[in-house]
Amino acid sequence: AMINVVFLLLIFFLMTAQITTPPPFDMTLPQAQAQEDSPTPTLYISAAGDLAFDALRGSAAIAAAATNSPLTLQADAHLPATMLARVLADLTAAGATELRLVTEGAP
Question: Which residues on adjacent β-strands are paired with residue 80?
């Protein structure tokens, strides 16, 4: 009786399991870093497009933030992509070379 249940469960799991296919060629996946070793300067962007870097606001924040590398961007999730693109272009024009956009993992 118990062995029948075990075999039924085994067959159920074998039938419902999704078996992944191997990649068509050898691959080396990129490594992710879990934590930052040291805090990086952060430019904050609100949903309305307001900029803040330390005590600076607006275009002064972009000018000061662009001198830091790497620079972390924390943008509100409701910020329109066109505004983010404009801020990225302004940072690049001001001399920023390495930018990191902070996101939140999906639940």
Answer: none
**Are residues 66 and 94 in contact, defined by beta-carbon separation less than 8 angstroms?**
yes
pLDDT above 60: residue 7: yes
pTM: 0.63
Cα-based torsion angle of the residue sequence 37, 42, 47, 52 in order, rounded to the nearest 10 degrees? 160
Q: Is the pLDDT of residue 82 over 80?
A: yes
CA distances from 10 to 1, 13, 105 (A): 15, 5, 34
Vertex 49: Cα angle to 48 and 55 (nearest 5): 115
Residue 73 backbone dihedrals phi, psi, to 5 degrees: -110, 125
DSSP for 29-44 reads PPP--SS-SS---EEE
Report, in angstroms and rounded to the nearest whole number, the Rg of the chain calculated over CA atoms: 24
Between residues 37 and 15, the one the model is more confident about: 15
